[in-house]
Specification:
It is a single chain. By secondary structure, the protein is mainly α. It has one domain. 71% of the residues lie in helices and 0% in strands. The radius of gyration is 19 Å and the shape is globular.
Length: 304
């Protein structure tokens, strides 16, 4: 709960920086992430190898992480918080679909129905805008697709790659691409904006650390549904800081997406009642440096 609440504060800080390009926000938020990230790595007991086992998939993961961050930043700028979260909440549904070709998993009738119901919820959210979809809505959907791609690729390579590899390369890609992209429209920033950028980096690493702790100490299927608590924070923060009034259609569509996601999680729980508790690696759908546990989970590999 604290981890997802921390990420909601992180997203509010992003949305508050309306006058700067998404590349400038991305560059400085990732740059400031290195301070708490360095502390995190100093106390981490994971390996320190920087050599990736699968260069191609690591590159795809870096690209999808970068895409999820940039698209989410753009969506937060142009849409209410509740709409962005409703669209991003479709990521678990997309993961279910992508797991078929990428991970070779089979999706039975019940999960297929859940996915179909969830995508109906997405259509409900987009319903009033179907005739004139904005770039913000498209960015929100692309952020969900990129986030799902990141999660599936991480599931495929996470046990074979060190935490340092999974964290450092996306950070360097984000810094490099955003650094070059922001040159043309860079705007000088006052101290308050720099402080906000620092806060984004700090909350990103803090949120990751909290979720890593949660996923290491409890089965993933029990933790995942708590992500939906972010919708409550979106309603509260949107009202307090941005004078946003949640649209009834968005809340209905988000409820459908949330219910379908919980149904998938419930199915996962009931399907694994006779198996050992499975620990999985954390992913965060929106942005920030992604901190993962790279410990090999042989029990999970055998179960798969």
């Amino acid at each position: 709960m604290l981890g997802f609440a921390t990420f909601s504060v992180h997203d509010v800080l992003i949305k508050s920086l309306q006058t700067y390009s998404v590349f400038q926000i991305g560059f400085f938020s990732v740059l400031f992430s290195f301070v708490p990230f360095t502390f995190f790595m100093a106390i981490s007991r994971d390996g320190v190898s920087l050599r990736p086992s699968n260069v191609g998939l690591v590159a795809i993961r870096c690209a999808s992480l970068f895409g999820s961050m940039m698209f989410a930043f753009y969506a937060f700028r142009h849409l209410p918080l509740t709409e962005v979260y409703a669209l991003i909440f479709s990521a678990p549904l997309i993961i279910t679909v992508l797991a078929i070709p990428v991970l070779g998993e089979s999706v039975r009738l019940f999960r297929s129905l859940c996915v179909a119901i969830g995508f109906c919820g997405v259509l409900v959210v987009l319903g009033p805008q179907l005739d004139s979809l904005s770039l913000g809505h498209i960015a929100g959907l692309l952020a969900a697709v990129c986030s799902a791609t990141t999660a599936v690729v991480t599931r495929k390579i996470g046990a074979r790659e060190s935490s340092l590899t999974l964290i450092v390369y996306p950070l360097l890609v984000n810094l490099t691409v955003c650094g070059f992209a922001m040159i043309s429209d860079y705007q000088p920033m006052p101290g308050s904006a720099l402080l906000t950028m620092g806060g984004i980096g700090l909350f990103a690493v803090l949120g990751q650390s909290l979720l890593i702790y949660a996923y290491r100490n409890a089965p993933a299927q029990y933790i995942a549904p708590f992500q939906y608590s972010q919708m409550l924070w979106a309603v509260l923060f949107g009202s307090l800081f941005f004078s946003e009034k949640p649209d009834r259609t968005v809340l209905i569509g988000a409820s459908i997406i949330i219910v379908s996601g919980i149904m998938i999680v419930w199915r996962e729980v009931t399907a694994s009642t006779n198996k050992p508790n499975l620990k999985t690696r954390n992913f965060r759908a929106v942005s920030g440096p992604q901190a993962y546990s790279a410990e090999t989970d042989t029990t999970r590999d055998k179960a798969d």
